[in-house]
Amino acid sequence: MSFKSEIAKRRTFGIISHPDAGKTTLTEKLLLFGGAIQEAGAVKSNKIKKGATSDFMEIERQRGISVATSVLAFYYKDKKINILDTPGHKDFAEDTFRTLTAVDSVIVVIDVAKGVEEQTEKLVEVCRMRQIPMIVFINKLDREGKDAFDLMDEVEQKLGLTVTPLSFPIGMGYDFQGIYNIYEKNIQLFQGGTKKKVSDSIAFEDVNDPGLEELIGENAAVALRENLELVEGVYPPFEREAYLQGQLQPVFFGSALNNFGVRELLDCFVEIAPPPRPKQAEEREVKPGETEMSGFVFKIHANMDPKHRDRLAFIKIVSGTFERNKPYQHVRLGKNLKFSSPNAFFAEKKEIVDTSYPGDIVGLHDTGNFKIGDTLTEGEKLNYKGIPSFSPEHFRYINNADPMKAKQLNKGIDQLMDEGVAQLFTLEMNGRKVIGTVGALQYEVIQYRLEHEYGAKCTYEPFPVHKACWVQPTDAESDEYKDFLRVRQKYLARDKRNQLVFLADSAFSLQMVQQKYPGVKLHFTSEFE
Ligand code: G4P
Q1: What is the residue with the minimal CA distance to atom 10 of ligand 1?
Q2: Closest C-alpha residue for ligand 1 atom 29
Q3: What predicted TM-score, i.e. pTM, was given to this entire model?
Q4: CATH of the domain at 464
């Protein structure tokens, strides 16, 4: 098969949702359709169980599972589908943000009863900003939930999307009978007393056909016709180009648990979802069809075995073919590296692969060369954009609790930060280290892993910070900037990339600085123009 057709058949995407909306269940059903797994229950949920905050065995178990489910690949209708795992737990939101830099599209799962929830809002906002094509799947239609139109209103308002339904439910909860597929113009019914079986699709080009009454009863037929009329009047027609531009989001209804509406979603997905998209590097835009290989690290996973400190760096191939044993340039380090056992992922297995194509994810064994955001090329100096750090929510000093193990502690902190577990800030004034995280859970993870993987002990001390802001002076030589550096010295730190960061201790002091030093720009992410 030619290089071009290998690219054209890849679909790399992520499923995002608030925890419990049904992401794991949907993933599993998609894998079943792809024949990648044989039975339900095979995909382990990687979510942190409620109340597991201080249960380290649980955290370790999760880490094991999350290696296995980082990438789930399968074939369906000649397409190679790569599902990238996105943790739903809010303490791991940064992980998910980073994974979203490696997807070409997403499916957003929403619980029909709960509607749009907090985590969905945050994740969709990131996708919207990056114009990632999105399909919405409204799940759990077998339960009582919100009215379909109200829910679509909510999706539009809270998520800032423009939706158009491609399927529509017939009834809901107790009265749920099935789904009218607007895209394919057919009906699928829930069958049997327990409504657990699903009928084959029944073609229905024209819903005014009196056969509809026979099939679903008079009331439901009248309601469906009215609803479809309303859909046609209110929502824009589906246009693939608008979807690909991130301007229009098709909506499907179904029940992942009952495998209802999932095939429709998948069939439509393989038809409309984009193949690997071009990616913007700092230097230029790179197209998947270019012959020279380039790719970037979006995730690093430490191995489970604490004795072998090797890690798996996940690389998304952007252009060219990635080949085993071929030297590639690590752009940041300026050195060539060869990989003798690159891993490809298939369902829940990983295996050594000779050649990978744009859209694929390759897992590379690493002994400490990689950081999140690193780029590999065939020699060109490319740096991929779009992997910023965000201001953490929590900040604490980290102290060494075992003076004999200072080296181990520093090494451990360094490597955990490269993995993206948290962010390290080193204070300008006294060199003290401050760890910033998205959730409190990470402090426990760091402490536990430092001890078990590096033999180092740490303690924390509160450090009150409202927000970390990356500093960009309009003129680095100006008196204004020098004054800012002098007066605010106590609150200045360096991040891992040696960028200057202002740690504002309150909203008030942030505002004061912004007013007093208009020539000093403060950014809430590490990446700015
Ligand atoms: P997540 O990955 O988004 O966190 O959600 P997950 O798939 O784990 O689903 C959360 C819960 O919702 C699970 O129940 C799952 O069985 C249920 N669920 C998923 N899809 C549907 C659906 O279409 N209808 C209904 N009624 N329930 C659905 P649980 O009791 O938390 O877990 P489990 O014990 O069933 O595994």
Answers
A1: 20
A2: 20
A3: 0.86
A4: 3.30.70.3280
